[in-house]
């Protein structure tokens, strides 16, 4: 799966253990690694991420101490993603303490990343890539709960970022999702909002198919701005209650 290829791609040279911790934590918090999903074993992780077994073990121990993963023993044992991480990572009460400036800045950061990713993906995406993304959009459309809708959305976003064929852009998207996902889950309680986002993705798919990079950038920007505006509206509504 392309999203997992991004999550487990090789790590840079500096602070490797910290980078692994951050990347896996971001993937868990955003829901890209599902609750109770088994991680690759230490040997496979070391090979995939280009680090030593000791570095992987150190990172997994830290993630375990943070409660993000757990270990099961026995024949089918290994490291697994802990449950209910996204809700615990950003409880609803914390929404009261964040500022509209924070939400606006987060939206601008995400818009910059996603718009450029969409431009590059338009130029570099293959027919097979487009078919895979279409399947993820259909999964988003069919999802019912806010949590599953958010996870499906994050998978679509990261798939587009991965199709930019820029490792830095894909990893930046993964980073922003750690903050973004816990917030937008609240928005997906609305069926109307859910259908609006599916509509944005449908238009984006059409732009990709037509190789219209300018249209793709406009749609990507409008979609992220729609998210940001709704988050600020929710912030104001909570503040006044």
Key features of this structure:
about 240 residues, two-stranded antiparallel sheet, Arc Repressor Mutant, subunit A, DNA binding, single chain, GntR family transcriptional regulator, Four Helix Bundle (Hemerythrin (Met), subunit A), 2 domains, mainly alpha, 11 helices
Structure description:
The chain is mostly helical and 241 residues long. The protein has two domains: 16-81, Arc Repressor Mutant, subunit A; 92-240, Up-down Bundle (Four Helix Bundle (Hemerythrin (Met), subunit A)). It is 71% helix and 3% strand. The protein contains eleven helices and two strands; from the N terminus they run H-H-H-H-E-E-H-H-H-H-H-H-H. It has helices at residues 2-7, 16-29, 42-49, 53-65, 85-89, 100-124, 127-142, 146-162, 167-187, 191-209, 213-239; strands at 69-72, 78-81. Strands 1-2 form a two-stranded antiparallel sheet. Helix 6 (100-124) packs antiparallel against helix 11 (213-239) and helix 10 runs antiparallel to helix 11. The longest helix is centred in the C-terminal third of the chain and has 27 residues, at 213-239. The chain is globular. 38% of the residues are buried. The model is unreliable at 86-91 (pLDDT under 50).
Give the helix/strand layout.
Elements: H1 2-7, H2 16-29, H3 42-49, H4 53-65, E1 69-72, E2 78-81, H5 85-89, H6 100-124, H7 127-142, H8 146-162, H9 167-187, H10 191-209, H11 213-239
Antiparallel strand pairs: 1-2
Helix pairs in contact: 2-4, 2-9, 3-4, 6-8, 6-9, 6-11, 7-8, 7-10, 8-9, 10-11
């Amino acid at each position: 799966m392309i999203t997992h290829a991004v999550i487990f791609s090789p790590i840079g040279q500096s602070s490797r253990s910290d980078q692994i911790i951050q990347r896996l934590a971001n993937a868990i918090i955003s829901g890209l690694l599902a609750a109770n999903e088994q991680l690759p074993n230490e040997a496979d992780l070391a090979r995939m991420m280009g680090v030593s077994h000791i570095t992987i073990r150190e990172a997994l121990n830290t993630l375990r101490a943070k409660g993000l993963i757990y270990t099961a023993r026995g024949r089918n044992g290994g490291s697994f993603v802990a449950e209910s991480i996204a809700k615990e990572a950003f409880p609803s009460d914390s929404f009261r303490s964040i500022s509209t400036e924070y939400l606006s800045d987060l939206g601008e950061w995400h818009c910059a990343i996603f718009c450029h990713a969409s431009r590059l993906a338009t130029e570099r995406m293959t027919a097979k890539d487009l078919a895979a993304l279409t399947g993820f959009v259909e999964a988003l459309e069919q999802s019912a709960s806010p949590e599953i809708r958010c996870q499906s959305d994050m998978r679509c976003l990261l798939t587009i970022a991965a199709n930019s064929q820029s490792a830095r852009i894909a990893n930046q998207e993964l980073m922003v999702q750690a903050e973004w996902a816990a917030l937008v889950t609240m928005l997906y309680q609305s069926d109307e909002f859910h259908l609006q986002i599916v509509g944005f993705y449908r238009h984006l798919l059409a732009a990709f198919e037509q190789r219209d990079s300018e249209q793709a950038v406009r749609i990507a920007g409008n979609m992220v701005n729609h998210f940001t505006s709704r988050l600020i509206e929710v912030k104001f509504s909570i503040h006044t209650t």
